[in-house]
């Protein structure tokens, strides 16, 4: 490329000298025409008479080192054009690759579009089309912006006639959408926008409606009448150029249009799918695209599609879209084009993606909805590589649900507990609390499933919202993750595939952490974490199922899955017969109603919580302190206090849902019912009192019962084959009627305290006199046979241990007597 800048400055001086000789004209611009390499071919000057509007336009060129007011010999200076003139801005549009070329009438308009970042050119007008080399436009997608007048239409026709047989797709800006006056052009449009305070950007131009140009120059073929139908549809988004055609998004679908052998071909790819934004997480990873569409039932959908799903053949993406109501072409080529459209459609809007439902700052995220305002103003969407089904669906009105579900439950404590639990998951994060599970245990005719299904109706259709225990621990991990900050319902605990996993599953669900795993690329995948509450049902308790599997339920498991036995109730899940003939009919009526009215209570609850999360949290904290004091009462045991605190949280949830106008219950209904069920649990829990101590004492004594005679060597006994001890754990010393077991510290930790905290065990043993200690230490110095050194050992008093009445020591049953029951009357 020669020094075009210097040449242009010299050309400008020459042009001004020419204009000065023209009476009344004022110089405006000099336009420089080059070849595809940027070398100057000629110039064109433009001047105007401000008094009468007359234009003065002349071409000039170089002859030797002098400017002459004449066009050059194009055969000589532009041989590739075969005597024709070059397109304006040829150097720029030659570097545009797959971008569309905007063609306008005049260099000033092309310059403006090029400054915006588009690729624009001109032939100068309809009279110059036949004199211009148009080959750089062949096979490209061009968008024509003609002047809004008759010459503009002639320019469009002439240009289309010249390129349509060269596989060039010609589209035109839909001028009647721009409110232009006669003869207005792109510059006039920009000035009108500026007059009302609107700046114009590249996106403003790209988002203008364009349509394939329909003139006698297009030969529509019968086999491709899709093109004719496409022209009659409404444009929904700006087109996207691709190769020698472009994608267009209209009311009848996503199409790909191209010219082939002088004919316009139009390929239908899918029903309309819009790309709204690019998504990414807070670390600028997990990129995706936010899609939007309306299904055949006129239901609007949005989905944040992870970009990684496009790095295969796209089958997973298409299956997910088809599942959510998008109709797609089955043609292989159409599928490939659709994937190209989804992956590459240009958008400048960004959204923050999250892969977990639940609370994110002051917003609550659901798979297809975001509730609440974001203080930062950033758009947040849910995005997951898992095909998550949106179960948060609604049917009926809140009034319907109140009158046909909540009202019938109000006088039944177990049902109030279940419904209040359904509102509890959303309070865990604001209050900084852990969840728990409640297990309704009862025979098949007692209505246990009715209780958990009623809770499901708060959030969606019970038939699709609930899960069963018939899943592996890995599957339940993913299920728990998708119910973060919410309610998980698991029906029929007896169906669990491997009861031996049950104890660990309980810990996993409530502790809120999955297993660490590797990705396919051998990187460490982030461990799934969640907070939730869950309801369970079944004919057996956790303890019964674990015993059948040869295991013993631990206290930590039993207070994480709180067993509520409804078999003792005369009417099962119901306190009384008050809205039908019998318990069975009441259950049938409720199960029928929850299939008609669901999801609306949960939606109202989220609106209430997000309306002022700070204030709502303050109210919840105050109520929680009040209710916890009432339920804890005189109880001192840690496990009872933990359950009492959880029941208090459930009561808070039910009362706040009532305050929010969601349940329709009288004030005090939730706390009164929850307290009654808590007392019911206290009366049925087999290990009320120092249960942790009893668990420890039983385990230790069982160990010595099994191994005391076989794995401890007698002190002061001469060695012989008959007294040899295999796998020795320590020594036993017998003096008169007293026996003491000496245990090595490591053996104590690894075998006697197996699965228990050794420090806690030692403190309990010392508390009940089972071990002798040196002062505050838990061990005692002893000299062992065949050793001159003393050793610290755990010294067990066998007589105390074997004669200790563990059951009598732990029977510290307490009732939660309180005058609270009448606090909320009236």
UniProtKB/TrEMBL annotation:
It comes from Acinetobacter bouvetii. This is DUF927 domain-containing protein. CDD domains: TOPRIM_primases. Residues 247-527 form the DUF927 domain. InterPro entries: DUF927 (IPR009270), TOPRIM_DnaG/twinkle (IPR034154). Pfam families: DUF927.
